């Protein structure tokens, strides 16, 4: 049964498209600018360099989002994907930056992108490593990993002095309640625009309470031209190796995100589609490095927007790409969006990210229930949660181990894939006291039915 309001190739009216595109931008913008801000702060870069990194990240994200949605030849999955700078690269970027500066980060990113570009041509084979039970685990881990992010937003932002303040929690709950009410009882565009309407009302409440900080708007430039190769590039072998490893981890996470996207858009995720999508990630990251931006990857949080609103139009998200590009060219626009208080985003984000978790749980409910599958699901989710809840677990292990298993999504995916390959297919247990039970079947036979 089709539950989508707009399918992948549908073109909603312009006003509707603009509202829906704004929702995706609001969901992604914080994550896009966070990486250059974090890297810049830790490396103690001058303010003008941090601004240049942020602008390049927005511009690069916008252009690559359009390519991913619309496609250019063999590049681009042609599904509603929002691209952005990924935290999977932060550890590698910081370690490279301390020794080789921003030129080393960008050069290593450019050279390392070859790993993803080459890897994309093996996606039809890699797709075979992701049968239904493995895909269900990965989608579930994406949801489990994102929900704590929304909780931190709702509480006021991780590390904030007023973290968990009653005002923050009330604002987040009000926004959440508005989104739920609009999705449940709204019709057409009202239901589809529930997130942006909820955020707008939450923002208005915060304005009335004096909780909106406009200092970033006052400091932002109205217009800024892109500055390709502004920082220069260097190619340290150790940095290229670190970035190459980060790209491998990102390929695993991106594959999981595409699987979740396929479920949300009711698209069968074939190996050829994965190839085009991952190739766009790799080529897009290479392009972003020339702009002076960190590497790109497909954002999982926007899958939640699609699941919640039922809007799967790739043309909507292509407009989101245009908005992001404009935010890179007109920093003041991005600065205005950044003024949205964290609790407002948290209320909407909790709903969006929980929808991804719900999709994962529904997928888990459709797998064959036998001992082997139960072990794969239990162990992989348990390992994924272990590093998500207690990241210090890996603190004393070598850096490359942290790079691979530092994310709950990549850990869950890797463990699920390995267990699916290692655990033998056993006959389904048949008990003598069961009535009308068919003859024993191998699990692989059941999967083929």
TrEMBL record:
What is the similarity comment for this entry? Belongs to the nucleobase:cation symporter-2 (NCS2) (TC 2.A.40) family.
Q: What is this protein called?
A: Purine permease
* Presence of the UniProt keyword Transit peptide in the record: no
Q: Give the membrane topology, semicolon-separated if more than one.
A: Multi-pass membrane protein
UniProt keyword Acetylation, yes or no = no
What are the entry keywords? Answer: Cell membrane, Membrane, Transmembrane, Transmembrane helix, Transport
Q: Which taxonomic lineage does the organism of this UniProt entry have? A: Bacteria, Pseudomonadati, Pseudomonadota, Betaproteobacteria, Burkholderiales
Q: Give the Pfam families listed for this entry.
A: Xan_ur_permease
